[in-house]
Specification:
276 residues, mainly alpha, 3-stranded antiparallel sheet, two-stranded antiparallel sheet, 7 strands, elongated
């Protein structure tokens, strides 16, 4: 991808230090084997990477820079390769992101583009790749002014669509959480598609509470609590609907009703391919 996760809005010492620390936390949230020592080493390697490129036309490192610096740090400390070196080696060797020497320049912005990032065939690093792209989107979003409101409607700038979201909802992605919480005023919204309504209630963050619209298609094993939270219905109705949800036909949908006297609404959705 012509994206460099190390591009920053400014390259002063404070901005670099914060970004380096955030990257270390991101890596650790995806890979449980990265402990305090590895996070510290990664933070220092990233800071050294910016120092190496300081004053150049492209004043940001790539993953090859970070890997080389981390390897040198380990050699000087007479340390053996560990999970941090393994992750950095994969990121460098698979050439997933932009690197110095590429013919195409890295994208200045991703929030104003249409991108389809397919990671299903990747043997490793799926979650980390998604994490880094989402982090980049958040950093761009934070610099934007509020999107204009016309006729009472907020202008949309960007839609972040995450398919098979159950693979990512369990990751402690602070940038995804921030986009969900802060993105509406910026005109940036998130669209999740997941295998089960149960996936949205994580111990560290309840995505369900912040979903403006939710639609349940046919799925098995959905809990009554999830149905109740999504539809806003009674616990009895939720229990009664568990079996019906498992037997829904293709394109049949259940959602929260806009009528106060109705606990839910069931309707037939229109297939996208039939309309466009």
């Amino acid at each position: 991808m012509p994206i460099n996760p190390f591009v920053l809005p400014a390259y002063d010492e404070q901005t670099i230090n914060i970004s380096a620390r955030e990257k270390a936390e991101s890596f650790a949230s995806i890979n449980s084997r990265l402990g305090v020592v590895q996070k510290g080493a990664l933070t220092e390697a990233i800071r050294a990477g910016y120092a190496k490129r300081a004053g150049s036309v492209a004043p940001y490192p790539d993953f090859q820079d970070i890997l080389e610096i981390a390897n040198l740090m380990y050699e000087e400390a007479d340390k053996k390769d560990d999970s941090l070196i393994e992750v950095l080696r994969d990121l460098s060797n698979f050439e997933l992101f932009w690197k110095h020497g590429d013919e195409v320049a890295p994208m200045d912005r991703i929030s104003n583009r249409t991108l389809l990032i397919d990671v299903h065939a990747m043997p490793v690093l799926k979650e980390l790749v998604a994490y880094l792209v989402i982090e980049r989107l958040y950093k761009e979003m934070a610099l934007l002014p509020d999107s204009p409101v016309e006729d009472g409607k907020r202008t949309l700038r960007t839609i972040l669509v995450i398919d098979e979201a159950h693979n990512y909802l369990s990751q402690k992605n602070m940038f995804l959480q921030r986009i969900i919480r802060e993105g509406r005023s910026k005109g940036i919204v998130v669209f999740f598609a997941s295998q089960s309504p149960n996936d949205y209630q994580q111990k560290f963050f309840n995505f369900q509470e912040l979903l403006e619209f939710a639609y349940i298609f046919q799925c098995d094993g959905v809990s009554a609590n999830s149905v109740q939270d999504i539809l806003g219905c009674s616990s009895k109705t939720a229990r009664d609907l568990q079996t019906e949800i498992a037997r829904l036909e293709p394109f049949q949908v259940m959602s929260r009703s806009q009528v106060k006297t109705e606990e839910f609404v069931k309707f037939e959705a229109e297939a996208f391919y039939k309309n466009y």
